[in-house]
């Protein structure tokens, strides 16, 4: 589904130049569940941002399907992103002024979907993550685990082919963490490709493949016996 | 500690450059505008306060009260009034009269005209104008003396050291210079309403034809032409004199007609210091004008202050986290408040300084636009500080206080959650709405005033102003004697179509009105007050007024010509004086059609018969503020003052040169004063044009300042909503989606501002237009246009910003979380 070839990301600020990713080569197939691990600052988020087309690489190739998107502008990236990719963040990133329902609906507003169908799909997604009874609450009125379930609903409501999760359990206790991991596994079982960054070895075990990053480079890849 | 705060404050201001600049510049513009207007208002409300006895000096006004008529007040009185007051009223310490006379003297070879004041000797004891040379107590003691201003002395003698020199008039009279005063300050009646630069004793003889006429006035209680000032004794309340005035007047002034007992004529004492802002006969600065200035200044300053407060509160809400951290580290509330106040005060102070610089740069232009002279002294540091400091302090305090109090209140944890916790967004939206309300009202006012000004200047005046030349200054013995010869000689010049003399041309602000009635009417019927215009043969033709019926004054009918003396009732002259009526006069008298009016008799002043020989179309003698006044034309030889020359379309510079030559040849001792009629008419509308220019300037400024604020707020919102915008993009929002979102957020207050501004502007401008007899209709389209342009400007201000934020990569946005 996607292939990274000699992918490098360099951040330049006034004082320093940071090489966050250094000649990374990764191939991820349709339907895979991949976990990315590594110490803080090794480039995990940078990698996910590029894979999620939120950012461009400094050099190297990024094949998404049979398109080379590394040099695409924001407009075309947004288009591909909208159709194919969902995001889950460590800090949930819900909009405080919008209700649970509206937060999830937001993901469909930018697709041309009629209002009726939109509402149905939001309800469906909320039911799937067991939060339908809280649809008219504001994010602050929910616990962390509940907020992350809303975020997952929002990520999947547009039915993306690939889900990117940056430390989705980082802010959750173990019970809530387990629940989120189960949901991701379920989604993967339904055919969604999942790429997840995590610090937790137990959670990484849910994935079929683990990629270890260190200092911007891939240092190990291990396939978990199915 | 303070030093530490200062350092932090400066660093914050530098770090948030955009806000600092927007805030500073906006406030500086507002302060500068308000300061300029404030200075002007201060200047206008502080006239003549500098005279040591200012509180005891009054101008004597003549007032007339009549049922069903607006009370009338006149600034001029009869010549004998002053001495009578001084004699009859023990409360009056001194009396000074001021009459003005045109003198002609030769300056660098050519005859020039200048204006001299004939005053009673104590003039300079009442009014403290500093003498550079001479003794104020005695300078004007004797006839034949003259006191002049420094510039006049330099003009005529090349030096201000002119005492002892002689000012020679073309009449052969010489006036001895007995004093030189410093040029008058700008804030005195004698610079503006009654400008004086030369003074002589009231008994001075000029030998130019004026003396007998002026001497003759000593017994004339009904000829009002002289200004009378009185100095009351210390402690006298002017109100105690008022009851005595009607009797005093009645004892000397015979009533106009026995049948008008309900008319009360009296005197009023107008305090010297109030004269300038209590304009009579339209001269001076009216309270309404001052109020308009204060209002516009308040609007512009208000907009700027709102900006400042909006931007500072917005900016500070971004610092909620900083505040929370400071608090967790143990900072006390007072310290935080102090810190915010200091930042705000620093910025306000800097803006104030910038505002001062702007005032220094712009004030001369501003005064030029107003066509007002203000002494440089008023622009010096002290005054400016007085004008600028209050808004600076107010703004610094308000701008800092709100965020200081709000931010320092909540518990640190609620602040740590994020900037949204610090709110205030609704207040800001309301304030933005207020700003745009003010701006939209100003824009509508500007457009309507512009329309009306243009409309008024294109109004059909009833005559042809283009292609006519006015020659002035015939109202002296030599001029009146030469009228016929001048007219004949001018008519022979090729390129001249017609020529005629008159007392005035339209827009001269002439106000000679008389009472007229029809014979056989009951005495109880009120007289009709018509404008009386003395003219000579040929004038109505030269003016280009269409004749509607009968004939005009004609050299072949010697009986057409009359004089003011010939009109006076009871001189045995019962021959009906021929007159020409305007269409409006025919209508008011109820004479039917123009043709029916010809041949009818009208009574002047009650009993003098006049015969209508012709009717002409209406002429606008005033401005578009008034409707066509009923007018009666009489051919009065002794009232003539101007010669009107109608030019052929092919007239050129040679024609004008020939006209000038003719004047110089026939009237060598009279100064040549020539102007084009249309230039003269235009001056009437200049005041309004100036006001509308000024208003346009200030509405532009108001919009600019409001947009500075909006720009800052847009930047702030973009920043505050970065996370949300990033998220929306992650979820698939396009750049256009985001721009639309942000633009809509700022459209709402502007749209609401329209709803408030429209009715407000409708009422205010409806009132203003009510002052014009000929006026444009208020056009709803203009309101829509003003609203739309405000919206477009707001969009243009915000859109760029929104686009920049929206176009950024979403990952940048998400990093802010
Ligand atoms: N926008 C940026 N500008 C500059 N440096 C950055 C930026 N984003 C990340 N970095 C740097 O790149 C390196 C990798 O960061 P990141 O991908 O966030 O690591 P991780 O998610 O593994 O903790 C770090 O050293 C970080 O400081
Ligand atoms: Mg990270």
Question: Would you identify the regions of chain B where 5 or more consecutive residues have pLDDT less than 50?
Answer: 411-422
Give the neighbour order of strands across the main sheet of chain A: 6-7-8-3-9-10
Number of alpha- plus pi-helical segments of chain A: 7
Helix content of chain B: 40-55%
Tally the beta strands of chain A.
10
Mean pLDDT of chain A: 90
Largest sheet of chain A: 6 strands, mixed
Mean pLDDT of chain B: 83
CATH level 1 name of the domain at 32-42 and 79-223 in chain A? Alpha Beta
The shape of chain A is: globular
Helix percentage range of chain A: 25-40%
Strand content of chain A: 25-35%
How many beta-strand segments of chain B? 23
CATH homolog superfamily of the domain at 32-42 and 79-223 in chain A = P-loop containing nucleotide triphosphate hydrolases
Tally of discrete structural domains of chain B? 3
User: Helix segment count of chain B?
Assistant: 24
Content-based structural category of chain A: alpha/beta
Bound molecules: adenosine-5'-diphosphate, magnesium ion
State the low-pLDDT regions of chain A, or none: none
Query: CATH architecture of the domain at 32-42 and 79-223 in chain A, please?
Result: 3-Layer(aba) Sandwich
Pfam family, one (chain A): ABC_tran
GO molecular function (chain A): ATP binding; ATP hydrolysis activity; transmembrane transporter activity
Domain ABC transporter (chain A): 2-226
Keywords (chain A): ATP-binding, Cell inner membrane, Cell membrane, Membrane, Nucleotide-binding, Transport
Question: Topology, pairings included?
Answer:
The complex is a heterodimer of chains A (226) and B (817).
Chain A lengths: L1 E11 L4 E12 L4 E5 L6 H8 L7 E6 L2 E2 L5 H11 E5 L10 H10 L5 H14 L15 H13 L5 E5 L7 H16 L3 E5 L3 H4 L4 E6 L2 E7 L3
Parallel strand pairs in A: 3-8, 3-9, 6-7, 7-8
Antiparallel strand pairs in A: 1-2, 1-4, 4-5, 9-10
Helix pairs in contact in A: 3-4, 3-5, 4-5
Chain B lengths: L1 H14 L1 H29 L11 E9 L6 E3 L6 H8 L3 E16 L2 E10 L3 H4 L4 E4 L10 E5 H8 L8 E3 L5 E8 L16 E4 L9 H6 L10 E6 L12 H8 L11 E8 L15 H31 L2 H9 L4 H38 L10 H28 L3 H5 L8 H33 L10 E5 L4 H15 L4 E7 L10 E5 L10 E8 L3 H5 L3 E4 L10 E2 L1 H4 L9 E6 H7 L4 H4 L3 E4 L3 E9 L14 E6 L5 E6 L5 H14 L6 E4 H44 L1 H9 L4 H36 L9 H28 L2 H5 L3
Parallel strand pairs in B: 4-9, 6-8, 15-21, 17-21, 18-20
Antiparallel strand pairs in B: 1-2, 1-10, 1-11, 3-4, 3-10, 5-8, 6-9, 7-8, 12-22, 12-23, 13-22, 14-15, 14-19, 16-20, 18-21, 19-20
Helix pairs in contact in B: 1-10, 2-8, 2-10, 2-11, 2-20, 8-11, 8-13, 8-20, 10-11, 13-20, 13-22, 13-23, 14-19, 20-23, 22-23
The structure holds adenosine-5'-diphosphate (ADP) and magnesium ion.
The site of adenosine-5'-diphosphate (ADP) has 12 residues of chain A, from strand 2 and helix 1.
